[in-house]
Design goal:
- With 702 residues, this protein is α+β, with helices and mostly antiparallel strands.
- It folds into 5 domains: 95 residues, no CATH class; 199 residues, no CATH class; 99 residues, no CATH class; 121 residues, OB fold (Dihydrolipoamide Acetyltransferase, E2P) (Beta Barrel); 126 residues, Efflux pump adaptor protein, beta barrel domain (Elongation Factor Tu (Ef-tu), domain 3), CATH 2.40.30.
- The strands form 6 sheets. Strands 7-16-21-18-17-22 form a 6-stranded antiparallel β-barrel. Strands 8-15-13-10 form a 4-stranded antiparallel beta sheet, with no helix packed on it. It has a 4-stranded antiparallel beta sheet with strand order 12-11-9-14.
- The protein is elongated.
């Protein structure tokens, strides 16, 4: 039997207000703590306990409830509410004991200098003004916005604006594309700043309209990102849930009204700053309202709308508590009671929401950590990134693991816990045991002998060999003709013949004997020109430098087509002598060695090709020579183009050349794929550690 507990006096400034009916129709009340401006929803049992608090003892309170109501109360129920009231700070401190308790509570809330800096770096709320009186004054002139007529008018204007924009859609879309630039982003930021002021005024005016007090407005810095806020906590006074939903949605509704008016203004204003401002408000406001404010996984308007729709106050914390209980039961079957009893369907909704939020926040905070890392200089970025990862990701996980260890210490594990331990041990072994021996990377199968065939001289194409044709060394593959070149060659030959005839005549003519040396020089020049022209005509026949297969002949080539000098006609490869050229990450270089076995898996569905490592570059690849593997052409290797158009790998990759084994590869063109090389076995966890350390050292300039 629970020992009776003496009840300390409650604070006299607490106020008990009527609340909305619960989901089951039972009455509720709202307990208001004006000193901390906090509200607590309590049920019928808690109300009866508070009503009899002056009786002074937990057993007397429980007996009184049992005697005067239909509720079956226990002393444990009173003790549980006593614990909650102490945690919430609802007691009046009496004597030395009460003073020590308050001092201890204040000491727990007091942060060290480092903790204060970290907390305020991650989230800092700055109160700017008390807008209550201003909102009351504005409400006297803007009460019409809460009428049905105003809502109908805005709806009609929205339809009109969409119709007018559809008639100028090309101009609207063109301006929207201009937003994806640095200048456009700055202009959107300015526009959103103005829209968010209207957003917060919407919350405040709606709260005042329903009689709530709005004690503060200000700016919150969420990881140094400014976010406006309005204190509408007083909405918990309202017993009508629809009024709270109206306050939740008022900010988005205000932005939508602003977007509707801005859209209409854009359609009628002439080009200029005013029209640009109207466009910014009409476009960015719609997008941000849907993408950010309606997101229930963060504490924006969508979260409070979902919380009030489900009628689950403090949805996120209660959901997290339920998720922790569910996870512990799924893993260890501890047999704990759930943190609260909810209807099965509602419990599933709250649990799904909590798990979705945890996954979303994990990736969100990882993204914020990377953003913080890249914003600051390297040393500061590393520190701030570490703070983000520790505070938002590692710290909550470690705290939960500590609870698991404490709960399981000295307790005989259940069968489910044994299964969990077994799966965890298997996973840990898979991460620690060095079984991970293969190294993979993108690769391409290519010929060792490959030549692009070009035209040496301009001419008209009169013969060609189609792709896929095997040719012998020296065989003519493409033939061109040039009537102009033929004409010049005939003229040169005729000139040479005429000069020979002149020389023969001069030999028997004493009067011209002195000019014979000049004629011989002219003949030498003519013969040299003829030989040069003959060599050029020989170049019109494009021959195979080695035996192989012709590939990649342009399908646009036609007989009779005129071709310029140095025009590519096709590629000659030797399919009997090929190699695989692959690229592996820097962290895997030390794991592979020449002679190691490997396999090449082509992108097409052909069988894998056995290989042996022939060579590995000592330095990282500076320029990627295989465009098929480049990301700009849809390949797996991330690259960027430099000023000269060369493909520069985004990270450190090393080229490895591998020779086919067994049956020779017979691919007639370059085939992309993946190479898997047998390397030294390492554990996955060890690889992650080494790569992380290497990344941190490189980014820190060490």
């Amino acid at each position: 039997m629970t020992e009776a507990v003496r009840l300390p006096p409650l604070r006299e400034d607490l106020r008990l207000l009527p609340g909305a009916a619960g989901r089951d129709g039972a009455p509720t009340w709202t307990l208001h703590d004006p000193a901390r401006h906090r509200f607590f929803r309590i049920g019928w049992l808690q109300f009866e306990i508070l009503s009899r608090w002056g009786l002074g003892r937990s057993d007397v309170v429980a007996d009184s409830i049992n005697a005067e109501t239909t509720i079956r109360a226990k002393e444990a129920d009173v003790a549980s509410f006593l614990q909650f009231a102490g945690y919430a700070g609802l007691f009046t401190p009496l004597g030395e004991h009460g003073t020590r308790r308050l001092s201890a509570e204040a000491g727990r809330r007091r942060l060290s200098a480092g903790s204060w800096l970290l907390k305020n770096y991650l989230f800092l709320r700055i109160r700017l003004l008390n807008p209550d009186r201003l909102l009351s004054w504005l409400l006297t002139y803007s009460g019409f916005i809460f009428t049905r007529g105003f809502a109908i008018t805005i709806g009609c204007l929205a339809l009109l604006g969409l119709h007018l924009v559809s008639q100028q859609w090309d101009a609207y879309w063109h301006e929207f594309q201009d937003l994806f630039s640095l200048e456009g982003a700055l202009m959107v930021g300015v526009a959103l700043s103005g829209a968010k002021i209207i957003h917060e005024l919407g919350h405040g005016l709606t709260a005042r309209y329903f009689g709530c007090r709005v004690p503060a407005m200000g700016v919150a810095l969420l990881v140094l990102w400014p976010v406006l806020w309005t204190d509408t906590t007083d909405a918990w006074r309202l017993t009508d849930r629809r009024q709270r939903l109206a306050i939740d949605a008022a900010g988005m509704a205000s932005e939508i009204v602003l977007a509707v008016l801005a859209t209409l203004a854009w359609t009628v204003l002439p080009d200029g700053p005013a029209r640009t401002a109207a466009f910014l408000l009409s476009s960015s406001t719609w997008i941000i309202t849907v993408a950010v404010n309606l997101n229930p996984l963060m504490r924006f308007d969508g979260y409070y709308l979902l919380s009030d729709c489900l009628d689950v106050p403090n949805l996120q914390d209660r959901g997290f508590a339920l998720a922790r209980w569910w996870l512990r039961e799924m893993l260890f079957a501890l047999g704990d009671r759930p943190p609260e009893v909810l209807p099965p369907r509602l419990r599933m909704v709250v649990l799904t929401y909590a798990l979705s939020t945890l996954v979303y926040r994990f990736f969100l905070f990882m993204g914020i950590a990377l953003l913080v890392f890249h914003i600051g200089f390297k040393a500061l970025g590393l520190f701030l990134m570490g703070v983000e990862v520790w505070w938002f990701i590692a710290r909550p996980i470690l705290n939960e693991v500590r609870i698991w260890v404490r709960r399981l210490n000295g307790v005989r594990p259940s069968s489910r816990a044994l299964v969990t331990f077994g799966l965890f041990a298997a996973l840990l072994a898979a991460l620690i045991v060095p079984w991970h021996g293969s190294v993979s990377g993108p690769a391409v199968l290519r010929a060792n002998h490959e030549a692009t065939l070009f035209t040496d001289e301009p001419g008209r194409l009169v013969a060609l060999v189609p792709s896929g044709t095997h040719v012998a060394a020296g065989e003519i593959v493409f033939r061109l003709e040039s009537p102009a070149l033929d004409s010049r060659l005939e003229i040169a030959r005729a000139k040479a013949a005429a000069l020979r005839a002149r020389i023969e005549g001069q030999a028997f003519d004493p009067d011209n004997a002195d000019d014979i040396d000049v004629t011989w020089e002219e003949l030498a020049q003519a013969l040299a020109e003829a030989r040069s022209l003959d060599a050029q005509r020989s170049g019109l026949a494009v021959r195979a430098p080695f035996a192989g297969t012709i590939v990649d002949v342009a399908h646009t080539l036609r007989l009779g087509q005129w071709m310029p000098r140095r025009e590519a006609l096709g590629i000659l490869i030797d399919p009997t002598d090929q190699a695989v050229e692959g690229y592996i990450a820097e962290g895997d270089v030390a794991r592979i060695h020449p002679g190691a076995a490997a396999r090449f898996y082509p992108a097409n569905t052909t069988a894998p090709l056995p290989l042996r490592v022939a060579s590995l570059d000592a330095g990282s690849t500076r320029v990627l020579e295989e465009p098929q593997l480049a990301s700009v052409w849809g390949g797996p290797l991330a690259v960027r183009r430099d000023a000269a158009g060369k493909l520069i790998p985004a990270g450190s990759v090393y080229k490895v050349v591998l020779d086919p084994q067994g049956a020779a590869a017979r691919a007639v063109r370059r085939v992309p794929g993946t190479v898997v090389i047998e390397g030294d076995a390492r554990s996955i966890l060890g690889d992650v550690y080494r790569r992380t350390v290497a990344l941190l050292m490189r980014e820190a300039g060490l």
